[in-house]
Write a structure and sequence with these properties.
- This protein is of the alpha/beta class.
Length: 235
């Protein structure tokens, strides 16, 4: 008996169809990976400037911050060590994995709130974290949008005038897609348009249609390699 997938059983029509489909499929895959150039109508070149390092980006904004010290900084999705790029007096972290570190609280931020009181943090950071949040989920039998909810939580926990700093691999760079756990691909317009006010002619954040209840002001945004660095202020 011939093997079930013996190529000799394929008719000429099937072979020709496969021959025609594969090049198109390959081009689609290359588009997704960022290795092929998309038509200009579908993509714009990054408009925000580039910086040499995260340190440079933070240094140029540090003098603009008028928050009263001492500062509390919370690093969400921190892993085993909370980042503290603004040199806050007290640094805490939140991560899905449990740890013995007394400065790290455990929470699944795709469904749980940030485990800190309202208006308690001066700075919240998210370094290579936002891209791991699912865009859509079910909670208590209702549809929810974890990315929108995390911005609600960030707004809730920050003091008025507090800042949120994110570092995220973004479209159009392939690093936004390469990791299979990157399920939330963002662009340089996502945070300014959907979560900020007073950007151009925009009156209200677009994410209000999805349940966003806060508002931020964009302080600064720049590219560092394939990562987008963003600082927004609680409005």
């Amino acid at each position: 008996m011939p093997h079930l997938y013996d190529s000799s059983l394929c008719c000429a029509t099937d072979q020709m169809a496969l021959h025609n489909i594969l090049p198109r499929f390959k081009f689609l895959v290359l588009q997704v990976l960022g290795a092929a150039r998309l038509p200009p109508a579908l993509i714009q070149s990054p408009r925000y400037p580039r910086v040499g390092s995260q340190l440079t980006f933070i240094a140029r904004n540090l003098s603009l911050l008028t928050l009263p010290r001492p500062w509390l900084s919370i690093d969400i999705g921190c892993g085993s060590t909370p980042a503290n790029p603004f040199k806050a007096n007290l640094s805490k972290g939140v991560d899905i994995l449990g740890t013995d570190n007394i400065h790290i609280l455990s929470a699944d931020l795709s469904r749980d709130p940030i485990p800190f009181p309202d208006s308690s943090a001066h700075i919240i950071t998210a370094l290579d974290f936002l891209e791991h949040l699912p865009r859509y989920s079910i909670k208590n039998n209702d549809a929810c949008f974890p990315v929108v909810e995390i911005f609600n939580e960030i707004h809730r926990v920050l003091i008025p005038g507090g800042i949120f700093f994110s570092r995220t691999p973004c479209f159009p760079y392939k690093q936004a897609y390469t990791d299979p756990t990157h399920v939330n691909v963002m662009t340089e317009d996502t945070i300014p348009l959907y979560f900020c006010v007073n950007n151009g002619s925009l009156a209200r954040p677009w994410a209000e249609m999805y349940g966003f209840t806060g508002s931020f002001l964009l302080l600064d945004q720049a590219w560092c390699g394939s990562h987008l660095l963003t600082i927004i202020i609680k409005h």
